[in-house]
Each structure stands twice: as structure tokens, then as C-alpha cells.
Amino acid sequence: MIQRLRTQINMLNTKHTARNNVFFFLLALVIGFIATLVILASALSLRGLYAPIQWEPSQLSVLQKNPTSLRLKLASIPANISLEHYAHFSLSGTQLQPTNILIKATLSNGTTLDFKASPDSSAERVAFPITLTGSANSLLSNVQIIFQGERQEGASILHIGLEPRPGSLSIDNLQSAHQALWQAWMSREGLNVYSAHFIVGGDKASYISSPVLAGLLWLSLSWFIGWGLTHKHMPPGAQLTALALMGLFIWSVIDLRWQRDLWNEHGEDLNTSASALTHAIDLQADRIRRALPSTNQRPDHRIFIFSPEAFDRLRLRYALLPLNTHVEARSLDQFIPQLHSGDTLILVLPQNEVSTNLTHNQISSGGYTLDVKPLLAEPRLAVVTLLAIKARETPDREAKP
Amino acid sequence: MNGIFTLILALLLPWATSSLALYAWMKPATDAHHHPRWAQALGGGYLLGLMLSAAMLWLSAKLNGAFLFWPILGLWLALFLAALSWVRPWQHPRPASLGAPLWQKLVIGILLALIALRLTSLGIENTHQAMPAWDAWVIWAERAKTWFYLGHLAPYTHSDAWLTAPHGTYESEAAHYPPLVSLIHLWAALALGRWDEALVNLPWLGAAIALGLTLYGALRSTHTPVWLAVGGVWLLLSLPILNSQVAIAGYADLWLTLAYSQLILGLLLWIATRQRAALPLILLGLVSLPLIKHQVWLLLLASTSPLLLWAALTALPQKQRTLMGSIAILGLIFVLGFNLADGHLHLPLLGEITLQSGQLSLPGLGHLAPDLQRIAEPMFFHLFILDSWHMLWGLTALAWLILLIRLLRQKQLNPMLLALNLSLLSALTAFSLSYASPRVMPFVLDGTLLNRGLLYLAPLLIFVIIHALTPDAAKTMPRANTKE
User: Fold this and answer.
1) pLDDT (tens place) for every residue of chain B, 484 residues total
2) End position of a domain, from candidates A268, A302, A334
3) Could you tell me if residue B420 is inside a domain?
4) Is residue B474 part of a domain?
5) CATH number where A366 lies
6) Which residues of B touch A278 (CB under 8 A)?
7) Residue B232 sits in which domain range?
């Protein structure tokens, strides 16, 4: 069939009549349309598969709250949920440690989702693997998330998100996303959403799926295909070069949009939650420095920082410079044999294994009790000078000089 | 404004002086019309100037016990005046006018405006954020801050050795890292007269500008039209992963990219033009790379330079080629034979390569047991899906396809482009193997290393893309003159 088509094209190519040109024009438009659909749908499918679904604090409302459970209602959100996701949560204050999570939601096609999951890992964040098997480009509505388990009083949720799980990309997912994109394109809702994104900004996925860009790509591809059909002797790689130039054009459009977003952010505030956190540690370091006697601030004086969080202890070390500090990843009781009397200890609290009783000038950790001289006592911070170390079940002993 | 004027002066004086010196050294260029030495000299001059400033700070502290910032700045002023009167740039012939059509001039104007806008935006972020990058305050700025406050080079050791180290020794997980990047931070702080968490990162903005100039010089030296060369610079400077290195400054990767670009683009210049202008750039790259960070540069060198060196050597006359080739082979046999007799090859600063019981172990990577399947998806995800690289890898794939078609149809490819592309493929293979090794893989999977590592190749990828778009460059490129 292809051979017959080529023969037909060659025959037509010999005569540049108006009728033939109309034929080539229409043929190029059809092939261009198919190519555009394939390129953009594939690109968006890949991008869409990885797009996280995220709710900001303003989109959350608390329905029920007690010490062992927390029920939240979340705003409706369009989402591609054709693959496995992690549910993740950022919290202010102490991390929430739920043992179970229940998610209830309704998809735009009326399907009800009801999940129960257990924590997968809580090293950096609370993350739950869940498998959502609805169709892509759905509208998630009536979303409720219920946490069950221990909850630290005072903790509040900064944001909740569903993040595609690494490793969940598969051909099945690609196919379902591909089909869903086609449905979205064919539906008025999809077009409106993506057009709005193109005008008001958004991420790369918005541009890829924009009908305006699709139209441009369709026309351009059709033009190049038409050129290819009507010109026998084309320069080598000319169409690819043209594609690359088009890529550069798209690059510039996206880049300008990013640039505009960046300027808008400059207009607001450069401070992010991360810089707010470092600023808080800098202020903490100022207070510690003021509390330390000048003899403890000499570079040859030993200062130890204990904190379970790597960020806290390392940033505090940096903020305290030029004080000569040693940061310790091990817990206090494991490290006590290395300590001397006269050492300064900075304890970023709370640490489960440490109990402070600074009114009695004592700190307990593991099998040890430390006699200390408090220099600074705050709810989450204790700075002390070590005087003596006592093992709990053995007679008192002086710390090594 | 306290100290900012001095900081700007402390950045500009070494830059200008070193650029003039490089400009003079790169003379004469036989092809004056197409050889924009000024761009390459400015690109390399920035790195050279700051490297020399850092070296003088280090020497003054070692010899005098304190940093002699003002005498060094005074010396730079004297050297600048001497270089100015020696080179006399105002007496050099002015570059020929663009002679480009109006549309090209318009494109150049728009691109330059976009670059200026981007640099302004990056400048605002760079100078308003208090040392936000993790590696910056854990490794590089940490040492600089200590040295600044103490006024001398306090010794550093690893945290596990700190307890038994002499009094006054500081600890860092990166105590063994070369000091150049920390000394650049220190140079900025000394110029300011205070430790400013944001402004000490200003040299990173200059490094991005120098990188752009380096790429522009390399593209123009290989006969790329001005509008496409400026387009290449814009591509580079609008790359999100590079922008993040300037906005959230303090990492060593931008400096490594700059140094590596000097070396590789210098080698390419040598292959393309056989002019001695390439020599200072190659030397600058070779000297500065080990002073910045020595985990990666060996991988980069091992993967890219042999091919480029081979391409450069083929340009030499037969006698010289045989001589240099023989020396290289004898040297290699000597080094390998001397060191590998017991299955160990010790590399200074890096560690040991061991080959025992059929298992190869490399410094920094451990046993080489690559699991490529596990890193394939994260790599695809980061390079093609996420925004960090914009569309660079997609365009690179397209550029390679264009060059392949050109190669198949014309049966030949410009030797410079051939060598560069083979080197890039070799580097990507080396990176993939290292990323797939058990020790490095966790950092690849969590995304903290993957993009930073490949950043070093970004200027070279853009060089390839721009050359793929200029098919006529191959015809106008000067051919190798083996009788030279």
C-alpha cells in the first residue's frame, strides 16, 4: 500500500497543477495532525505521569481533631491518577507519626476511592504507598484524609500531596494516560483547562498540552511534510534542523514565562520556608554565642552539638563559626565516654533518649547522669558545661580531666 | 554599600589583568576576522584571575601567617596598569562590523536583552539569599568563614579524627577537598571587610558570565555565525540547572564546569585551528581542575580527553606524532607496570584502583558492579521530564540525529565535531557506569547528584546543538594543516 502511495505521489509530483497542490496540502495536514497528536500526547503522557498532585494549606480544612486521629477535607483538584503514588505530608512542629492513613475521594466519573495504607518510610517525610486505579485527568473531589495514630500536639500540616511513586512508569500507564489525553482533548473541559494554563502560566506540561501550541506544531509539521512531498532534492537533515529551530522557539516561549514568574516572585519575597528555617538557626546561634563565657569561645575549646536532625546540627555548626564545634550523629549516651569535664554540650531537643533536669543541674541519658552547669535553657535547646559524669548503677566518678 | 565597591574592584581587577595577559599570549591569530580572542580571554581570564588571587592569599597566609588582602589588591592594580601599557588594547584593530542582515541584528539584540534580563534576575537572587545551598555551608563556605574570622588558615580534619587532633583543628566531612573554592569565598569576604552570607557568593554570577563568554569564543572560533553563537550563550545561561547554581550559589560545580569547558573547548580549538591561542586555555583547564574538586575531574578527563588528544595529535606532523605517541605509550607502560604489579594503582589525591580476583574497584565508586537498569528511569525522568534541563537533552538527541544524517550522506564529518561527539558519548558512558555503581547510586536515585554531575557537559552539548544547526560550518572550517 505504501509502495502504491509513493508511486501515486511520484506521479503527482511530476505535474505541479493546482489540483495536485490541493491534494498535497490536504495530505500534509492529515499526516501533520497525526504526527502532532502522537508527539504531544506522548510528551504530555510522560510529563503527566510524573506530575504531583498537591494541596496547599489554604485548600485544607480540619473536620475532626483529637489526640489519636485527624480528619481533613481537601479542595477538589484535577489529577492524573493512573499509577502508584506516594502520599506525603509536610508538617510544622514535630513530625506527625500516624500508623494508618485512610483516603476517601470521588472521581469525576462517579467512582468512589477508599484507601487504607501504612507508613512506608518516615526517614525524611511521612510517605505512604497507595495505588490509585482511576482514569487519568480526573477531578478528585470530596477528598478526605484521616490519620490514625499518635499525633504530637501542636503539629499542623503544611501541605499534603500525592506524588507519583518512582519506578511506577509502565507501558500500561503510558497507554492509559495516552487515551486519557485524547479524551481530554476531545472534551471541552480539557481544552479550557489547558488554554487557561497557557495564558496564566503553569509548568511545562501545560505548554505541551496547550491547544495553541498544538495548532502551531500541526501547521509547522504540515508545512514541512508538504515541503518534503513536493521537493525531491532536500538539503540533508533540513526537516530535522527546522524541528530543532522550532524546539528553540518553544524553549524561548517557556523560558520567557518562567522569567515572568521569577520576576513576580521577586516582587513578593525571596524568603522561603527553607530560608526561614536557616534564619531561625542563625538566631539560635546568636543566643548560644551570647550565653557562652569567653573562655568557651576560644578555638581550642571543645564544643559538642547533639541533634537527631542532620540539617539542624550541621547548620548550627556553620552558624556558630568560628566556634570550634564537633557535630555528633550518635546519641548522647553512646558518646558520653568521649566527653571530658569542661566540655560544652549543645543539645537540640527534644531527643527521646535525653532527659534534662536543669533546675537540678542534671542531664540523664542511657545509663548515665551528667552533672552540668546550665548556660542556656530553652524549650528546644539546652547549652551546658559538663562538670561530671555518673554511671547510673555504679558509684559516682569524675569526668576525665 | 559598605565594601561592595571593593568587592566589585576585587573581582574586576584580577579579571581584567588576567584577560589582558591571556589576550596577549593567544596572539597571533592567523584568522583575525573570525577569531574573537577577546571573548576567550575574558572567559578564561576570570578563572585565572580568581585562581591567582586565591593562590596569593594562600601563600601570604602560609608565609606571613595572615591574609594580605590589600597588598594583593595593590599588586593587581599595578599588574593591571602594566598589562594595559604592554598589551595596549586600544591600538589593536577593531573587530570588523557584523555585516549581518537586519533580521540577524534584530535577533542578536533580542537575545542580548534576554541574557541581560536573565543575569539581572539571577543577580538579585544571588545577592539576596543567605547561603542557601547545603554543600556551600557544609563544605566550601564553612572553611572560608572560619579562615576569615580567625585571619589565618586554620587546619581542618575529618570529624572522626577531630577528637585526637591538635587543639585548634576544625572538623569537616570535606577536609580533604582542595581549597580553591573556599579561597574564592574568602577573597570576596576580605574585599567586603565582613562575612556577608549572600554577597560572598557574588563571584558565582561572574563565573556564569565567564562561562557564557567562553562558549561564545569557542563557537565564533569555529566559524559559527554571530547570531547563533549568541543564541548558544542564551541557551546556556537560560538553562535552569545552571541558573540554580548561580541563584543558590556556593557549590563547586559551576567552577568545575568553567574549568572543564576551558580545557575541552581549548582542545577543540586546537583541533579546528591549530593555533597557539588554544594552549593557554588547555593549560588553564588542566591546572585549575584538580584545585577545585578531585572526585569528578578524573572521570571527566579519563572519559573525554583521550579522544580529543588523539584528534589533536593526528594534526601534528608525522615525526612529532610518532615521538609524542611513543612517549605517551612508554609513560603509560611505566606507570601501569610500576603500580599495577600487585593489583593496586595509587593515584595521587584520589586513592587506589585495585584489580583483584577479577573485580575492579575505583576510587570514590567502590567495586564496579553497575546496575544500569535501576538508574535508567531516574535518568530519563530528570533529563527529559523534569524542568531542570529545559529541553536540552531532547535538542541534543535531535542534534545527534542531524549530525548522523550528515555523516551518512556526506561520508565525512568535521574532525572536531567527530572527536567531540565521541568524547561526549564516552563521558556519558562513564557517567552512567559511575551512577550505576552501588556507592553513587543512592545519590542518583534521590536526585542530589545526577544533574550536578552532568552539568559539566552542558556547554559542550550546546556547542554540538549549535554546530548541528550550522551545516555550512563544516565547509568553512579551516582544515588540519599537517605540514605546519
Assistant:
1) 568 899 999 999 999 999 999 988 887 554 444 456 788 899 999 999 999 999 999 999 999 888 999 999 999 999 999 998 888 877 776 666 667 778 788 888 888 998 998 888 888 888 877 787 788 888 899 999 999 999 999 899 988 888 888 888 898 888 888 999 999 999 999 999 999 888 999 999 999 999 999 999 999 888 888 888 999 999 999 888 888 888 888 889 999 999 999 988 888 888 777 777 788 888 898 889 888 887 666 666 666 766 666 766 676 677 777 777 777 777 666 666 655 555 666 665 556 666 666 566 666 556 666 677 778 877 887 787 777 787 788 889 888 887 887 777 776 777 788 888 888 888 888 888 878 877 778 778 777 778 888 899 999 999 999 988 775 544 444 444 433 3
2) A268
3) no
4) no
5) 3.40.47
6) 130-132
7) 4-87+102-312
> A401 in a domain, yes or no?
no
CB contact under 8 A, B118 and A274: no
Mutate to test the interface with B, among A318, A335, A336 (most CBs of B within 10 A): A318
Contact call for A251 and B235, based on CB within 8 A: yes
Under a CB-based contact definition with an 8 Å cutoff, are residues B477 and B414 in contact?
A: yes
> What would the grid cell of residue A345 be?
554540650
Find cell 584538580 and name the residue: B290
As for how many domains chain B has, the answer is 1
Q: Provide CB contacts within 8 A for B68, sequence distance 6+.
A: B56, B57, B60
Q: Say if residue A206 is in the same domain as residue A246.
A: yes
* Residue A188 and residue A132 in one domain: no
What is the CATH number for A131? 2.60.120
3-class SS of residue B351: strand
CA distance B149 to chain A (A): 6
Please tell me whether residues A231 and A340 are part of one structural domain.
Answer: no
Q: Which of B169, B241, B385, B472 to mutate to test the interface with A (most CBs of A within 10 A)?
A: B385
Evaluate whether residue A396 is within a structural domain: no
Q: Domain for residue B433, yes or no?
A: no
Distance from CA of B398 to the nearest CA of A (A): 7
All cell numbers assigned to B365: 565508586
How many angstroms separate the CA of residue A153 from the nearest CA in chain B?
Answer: 30
Residue in chain B lying closest to A256 (CA): B114
**Is A3 exposed, middle or buried, given 0-12, 13-18 or 19+ CB atoms closer than 10 A?**
exposed
Say if the Cβ atoms of A300 and B168 lie within 8 Å. Answer: yes
Are the Cβ atoms of A50 and B386 closer than 8 angstroms? yes
Which of A244, A315, A322 has the CB atom closest to B149's CB atom?
A322
Task: Read off the pLDDT of residues A273-329 as tens digits, 9 standing for 90 and up.
Answer: 455 677 778 888 888 888 888 777 777 788 888 887 777 888 889 999 888 888 887
Same domain, A254 and A334: no
Q: Are residues A210 and A243 in the same domain?
A: yes
Q: Cell triple for residue B374?
A: 535501576
Largest Cα–Cα distance in chain A? 109
Pairwise CB contact (< 8 Å): B387 & A263:
no
Which cell is A120 given? 512506608
Last residue of a domain, one of A169, A193, A216: A169
Domain boundaries, position A35? 2-50+177-268
Q: Same structural domain for residues A310 and A237?
A: no
- Nearest to residue B181, comparing CAs of B150, B139, B237, B241? B139
Is position B351 within any domain?
no
* Chain B nearest C-alpha distance from A326 (Å): 7
Asked whether the beta carbons of A225 and A28 are under 8 A apart, the reply is yes
CA distance B406 to B412: 8
Query: Is A9 contained in some domain?
Result: yes
Cell of B322: 610518532
- How many domains does chain A contain in total? 3
Query: In terms of pTM, does the model score above 0.90?
Result: no
- Cell numbers of A56, please? 496547599
User: Are A161 and A243 in a shared domain?
Assistant: no
* Nearest-CA distance A164 → chain B (Å): 12
Rounded Cα distance between A147 and A149, Å, is: 7
Amino acid at B199: L
Residue A323 domain-assigned (yes or no) = yes
